[in-house]
Every structure is written in C-alpha cells, then in structure tokens.
Amino acid sequence: MSEQQICDTNELKWKALVNCDKTFDRDFFYGVITTGVYCRPSCSSRKPNRVNVEFFDTREQAEAQGYRPCKKCRPDENGDNEKGQLLIVTACRRLEHSTSPPTLAELAAEAGMSPHHFHRLFKKTVGITPRNYYAKHRADRLREALVEGSMIGEAIYAAGFESLSGAYNKDQDQFAMSMKAFKNGAEGVVIMYGTASCLLGQVLVAATRKGICMVELGDTPEQLVDKLTERFPHAKVRKGDKDFQTLVEIVITQIENPQSQVVLPLDIQGTVFQQKVWKALRGIEPGITSSYSTIATQIGQPTAVRAVAGACAANKIAVLIPCHRVLTKDNKISGYRWGKERKKLLLDKERK
Ligand SMILES: [Zn+2]
C-alpha cells in the first residue's frame, strides 16, 4: 500500500469511529495513546482526539503495543456478535460428534480465538464448559446406544477395553475374574485405570475387559493407584490410554450429573450375599434414599441388617454402586468408605 492509500484507509476508519459505525467492528480496533486503552469502532465512550488514535487490524496487535481492552466495548471478547456465536455453534456440533475429546487449544484454533477467549465465550454462550458439554453428549450418546441395546460391545470397546469378548450382559453382573483369580489378587488379570479430578476430589476408575472393577475416591492420584495395586496385587495394572479416559469422563458425568444415568458394565467381585445387596443398591434412583433395614427386607433377609451395612461398607465401586444412598433408620448420614463429607456432597447434588 502506498502512503496515500494508508492515509485514505485511516481516514475511513476515523469516520467509522466518529460515527460509532458497528459495521466496522470486525475490521479494526483503535488504541488511544493518552489512556492506553483500545476499543472497537462502535464504542460508546467519549471520542478521542484524532492525533491520539492508532489503528490496529487485530486485538493481538493492539495488545502487543501494550494497550488494555476497554471495559465498555470489550474488544477482547468476541462478545455477542454473530460471528462469535456462529463459531461457538460450530464448536458445539464438533463436540457432539467427536469420539475423543478435542483439546481446548484445538477448538480455539478452529474458531480463530485464543484458548482463554474461546473458553470464556463458550461458557457465556452455552452455560457450561466445552469439557462438560462434551462429557454430557458423550453420556447421552452412550445412553441412547444402550437403550437401543445394540452397541454395548462397541461402547465398551470405545471406552478402551481390550476386546469385545464377554461383552456385558445387563441382567448378569458376573465374576469376570474367577473367584480363584480374585482371591489370588487377580493374578494374570489385566486391569486398566485412569484418574481425573471431579467435585469429590480425585477419582480413579479401573476396569478389566469385562467391566469396571473399582471406582475409588481420594485426594491424590498416587494414593488412588496405591489402593488399586493393594487390592489387586498380582494383576497386570496398566494406565489406560486416551480412549480409556473417555470411560473416566463418563463416570465423572455420572457423579456430577446424577440424573444422566448410564448403565455401565461392572466387573464385581464379592460373595453372593454382597452381590445381592449391591444389586439392590443399584436399584435406588438418584434423589431417593433407602435404609439398611429396607434393603435387608428387599433381599428377603430382614434380620440381616448388620450384614447389609457390612456389604455396603465393602463396596469398592463408588457412586456406580450407590451405597451413599443408604442412610440410617432415622435418616442420618452414616459412615462412608470415602468420607462422610463426600457422601453429603453426593446426596446434596442428587436432591437438586
Ligand atoms: Zn471502548
């Protein structure tokens, strides 16, 4: 561009600025030398003197020159402009159809925004973070698939299990490990695991090729992995890959979104009595609570109240076998393997 042309364009920009012309909002920004603030052309703040104005094509250029975004016209946000909204809608469609979660950096790059701005605009527009949006849709899809009844194997496969053999049978929670293998500390059994943080702290999800065998809550990932290896000392314990992490996400969705009930395959080890109790626990809907004596009656052993409490305490699959929904006879929160605080948090969440 010649100097004359630059002058002309700057003249045009100046006119747009003086007229608060919104149609130029996507074309340039202006910085005010005396205040150190940059604005969109349509900003309603008092107009600066022409000599104090610098023009920029992008917000990044303005910020590189040390300008701060104006608090009135928020040139650092894509704001409510249609283009921004459209980009967020595009990102939503992408999240709905992805089989593994795209990173924030990828999503932001596709929308042509910085990760920070993208995250902020997404949350403002959609109401939840991209990560939660993804997890919610993933859980919805899985639930639909499970309702259709056709994709259980695929769902398990997608969640990172090694093979489809022995795919989950809904009516039959089984000993995937033989009782002998289990007593031997799961000798020879491959167990994959993943950890992540959720509202209850850290969560570890471990699974054999048949289903989830442990959901543990705690304060650090290291502590949780220690518990896993203590419980299955002879298993081949391996950290799951990116796909396995999907399964962890689904479990977190269940914790944080109790109404999004997805029936996940479990690989349960316990005595026949414990299995009966755990099955009864799985029948308690979110938002509902039961008592040890009610469960005892339900399984046809009304006098076995203490044994029922024992079976609840022996549960190693937090939340998915919802032992937290069992209260004492007078509706008090009794003990919980993972701490009364967590039990209370879970119940509060489910009551909503
Ligand atoms: Zn402004």
The gist of it:
With 352 residues, the chain is of the alpha/beta class. Helices cover 44% and strands 13% of the residues.
Q: How would you describe this structure to a colleague?
A:
The chain is an alpha/beta fold. It folds into four domains: 3-69, DNA Methylphosphotriester Repair Domain (3-Layer(aba) Sandwich); 82-127, Arc Repressor Mutant, subunit A (Orthogonal Bundle); 152-256, 2-Layer Sandwich (Double Stranded RNA Binding Domain); 272-351, Arc Repressor Mutant, subunit A. Helices cover 44% and strands 13% of the residues. The strands form three sheets. A four-stranded mixed beta sheet has the order 3-1-2-4. Strand 5 and strand 6 (201-208) form a beta hairpin. Residues 147-153 and 156-180 have low confidence and may be disordered.
Each distinct ligand = zinc ion
Shape: elongated
What is the assigned CATH homologous superfamily of the largest domain?
Methylated DNA-protein cysteine methyltransferase domain
Runs in which pLDDT lies below 50 for 5 or more consecutive residues are: 147-153, 156-180
For the largest beta-sheet, the strand count, sense and barrel status come to: 4 strands, mixed
| Number of separate strands | 10
Q: Write down the CATH class of the largest domain.
A: Alpha Beta
Helix content: 40-55%
Discrete helix count: 14
The fraction of residues assigned to DSSP E strands is 5-15%
How far from one another are the termini? 62 Å
Mean pLDDT reading: 80
Alpha carbon gyration radius: 28 Å
